[in-house]
Design brief:
The complex is a heterodimer of chains A (149) and B (506). By secondary structure, chain A is of the alpha/beta class. Helices cover 43% and strands 21% of the residues of chain A. Chain A starts with 9 loop residues before the first strand and ends with a helix. In chain B, strand 1, helix 1 and strand 2 form a beta-alpha-beta unit. The chains are: A alpha/beta (149), B mainly alpha (506). Chains A and B meet through strand 4 and helix 3 of A and helix 1 and helix 3 of B.
Chain lengths: 149, 506
């Protein structure tokens, strides 16, 4: 089974104007890794979800996500933005962005992994370790370890 | 506290699980037992029916419709957006806890699965969440009545047994003499060889149990409203209602006041540090003080005024048309069953008894006969109604109906309170009509009675016993007919407790 995230899918300490830009940059990485087949189609699905209700959450996180036919395997793209980007949360901009891509009709094992990831997101310790992670490799290591736990 | 939750969101891959985790963490931190069903893309791990049945409250953290929502019917439900559940899980949990307090004690599942709270058998109330106000008030009253019935049955039947034994032992005066044996005689010089002592033993235990009737009614009405913190103000208010002679109607008022005040206090926002002692000390203290003050200061004087006026009115009627007097006394006997109006009529008869002298057909003796007969028809009429039209009554009412035969026969008018308390507007007029007819008929027939109580156990002391019994039977049947008719007319709004329905069909 392919891993949820790899170092190419991690963008550390980037700067971006808005959430559209952050999402697009992460999605490009997903496409480059062969996990998304149609970049525009996937972004449209993410935008559709974001339009229903912004996915920014307290604690400085944004979780743009979609179940999309353009996704081949459940994937997480991660970006860290020290300046923060407004993601619609009441308590301020998001500094950690998780782009969650799920294939439409994905099998249960994959979806369970995403569920487990989502559960980790609310833990302050998980968020802090990601804020303090020194490089891409350790981000992948933290997420893989935590989600497997 | 036991809580269950459902989380769901449109995509079903992120928020659903974040909310579940947030609620679980917050629930654990606050010391609650919380189980979450995530209705997400990864499939729902369904809550066990037992977990739902045992839950004190339900949390929906959802942005889409909850699947199989009917599983949670009858539970207090808090519904928030899935984001709210993530952002403020502790606050949502607190809301659920408040909701559980507002609609207390988990109702057993419809199937009746025997699930108790872990701390032992919990008191259950008949209150369901989301009920309309009128239904809710009825559920409060029903809860009070269902806890009152054991006291009525135990006390009433013991008193009736005592009369039976006394009559068997001491003959026609037995049922009168037994009430004159002091309780200290029984507790200090009980003679196992003396039948009258046995009868007095039954009488005093029964009388004591009966003394809890109104306090239990009030206490458990308040419990249904405010959960445990309501019990003390309700019981104390109910007891004061007895003291000031306000009867069961005063007790119902005390239960409602005590419960609502306790509930209001429980919903105050207070610092966490004092929240622990709130339900145990502060709420009962303040609510009891308030309820007690209301009973004594607000109700006491008007009640005395009503009693005095009614007594004066009755005294003025003496010598007027006796049949009309009998009808009036009948109306009064049935109006509040042990309450102030009933007391005035009864006292009017018993004081007359003392003044009657030895004349066999003195008016005062006819009054006594009319009053006793009119006081017997309410429980008898309701017992008959519950027997011929059981579907019009709830299960506790039907059980009470069985005891009501003996209570009515023993002139324990209170046997009808359980019926009147839950449906006063239909039941009380029915009782009054039957009692009025009986009172008027007894007066008309001219039966007389020399005993202040005893029911059919003092029939040897009644002269003109056959017409007396005829009048009794006519009034009983009339009460039954009227109450059955009224209950059918207002059937739609009677709103029979759904949990009781399967029993009614069985």
């Amino acid at each position: 089974m392919t891993t949820l995230i790899s170092r190419e899918l991690v963008l550390l300490d980037i700067d971006a104007d808005d959430r559209v830009a952050v999402t697009a940059r992460l999605a490009e990485r997903l496409e480059a890794a062969g996990r998304v087949t149609d970049l525009d189609g996937f972004l449209a699905d993410v935008r559709a979800r974001e339009a229903q209700l912004s996915t920014g959450l307290p604690g400085g996180i944004g979780i743009p996500h979609a179940r999309s036919t353009h996704v081949t395997v459940p994937t997480l793209g991660f970006a860290r933005l020290p300046q923060g980007v407004d993601w619609g949360a009441e308590d301020g901009p998001a500094t950690l962005v998780f782009l969650i891509a799920a294939p439409e009709g994905g099998d249960q094992d994959h979806l369970t992994i995403l569920a487990s990831l989502a559960r980790r997101l609310i833990h302050v310790s998980f968020r802090e370790s990601l804020l303090n992670a020194p490089d891409e490799e350790s981000v992948v290591e933290i997420i893989t370890r935590e989600v497997a736990a | 506290m036991k809580l269950v939750a459902v989380t769901s969101c449109p995509t079903g891959i992120a928020h659903t699980y974040m909310a579940a985790e947030a609620l679980e963490q917050a629930g654990q931190a606050a010391g609650h037992d919380l189980q979450v069903e995530t209705q997400g893309a990864a499939g729902a791990d369904r809550l066990a029916p037992e977990a739902i049945a045992a839950a004190d409250a339900v949390i929906f953290g959802v942005d889409v419709e909850v699947r199989d929502r009917q599983r949670f019917q009858g539970k207090p439900i808090i519904q928030v957006s899935v984001k709210k559940a993530i952002a403020d899980a502790p606050g949502v949990i607190e809301q659920a806890v408040q909701a559980a307090r507002g609609a207390p004690a988990p109702r057993p599942a419809a199937a009746g699965s025997p699930i108790g709270a872990p701390s032992g058998p919990a008191l259950t109330s008949k209150v369901t969440a989301e009920a309309r106000t009128a239904t809710r008030v009825r559920q409060w009253l029903m809860t009070g009545v269902s806890y009152m019935i054991p006291f009525v049955a135990a006390g009433g039947i013991l008193i009736a047994l005592s009369f039976m034994v006394a009559q068997a032992v001491a003959g026609r005066q037995g049922a009168i003499d037994v009430t004159k044996i002091d309780i200290s005689t029984i507790s200090t010089t009980f003679d196992a060889g003396d039948g009258m002592h046995w009868a007095a033993l039954l009488f005093w235990i029964g009388k004591t149990a009966f003394g809890f009737l109104v306090p239990a009614l009030a206490g458990f009405i308040a419990f249904a409203i405010a959960d445990r913190p309501g019990i003390a103000p309700g019981f104390v208010g109910g007891s004061l209602s007895v003291t000031i002679g306000a009867g069961f109607l005063g007790g119902m008022a005390a239960g409602l006041v005590g419960g609502l005040v306790a509930l209001w206090l429980a919903r105050r926002k207070v610092p966490k540090s004092v929240r622990g002692v709130l339900p145990v000390v502060v709420i009962p203290l303040v609510a009891t003080l308030f309820t007690g003050a209301v009973m004594l200061l607000l109700l006491g004087r008007p009640l005395k005024w009503v009693s005095d006026e009614l007594t004066r009115g009755l005294d003025g009627l003496s010598g007027a048309n006796l049949v009309i007097l009998g009808v009036l006394l009948g109306l009064m006997m049935a109006f509040d069953m042990g309450g102030p109006v009933n007391k005035v009529a009864y006292t009017f008869a018993t004081t007359g008894l003392a003044a009657a002298g030895t004349a066999a057909d003195a008016t005062q003796l006819r009054v006594m006969a009319a009053v006793m007969a009119a006081g017997m028809t309410p429980p008898l009429g309701m017992a008959l109604a519950a027997r011929v039209r059981p579907s019009l009554f709830s299960e506790p009412e039907r059980e009470n109906g069985n005891a009501a035969w003996l209570l009515g026969a023993s002139f324990i008018t209170e046997g009808a309170i359980a019926f009147a308390a839950v449906d006063a507007l239909r039941v009380i007029p029915s009782l009054m009509v039957g009692s009025a007819v009986t009172g008027g008929l007894v007066m008309n027939f001219g039966s007389t009675l020399r005993a202040p109580h005893g029911g059919i156990w003092v029939t040897p002391l009644i002269s003109g016993v056959v017409p007396y019994l005829v009048a009794l039977a006519v009034g009983t049947v009339i009460t039954t007919l009227v109450v059955v008719t009224l209950k059918q007319v207002g059937r739609r709004s009677v709103d029979v407790d759904p949990a009781q329905e399967p029993l009614a069909a069985a």
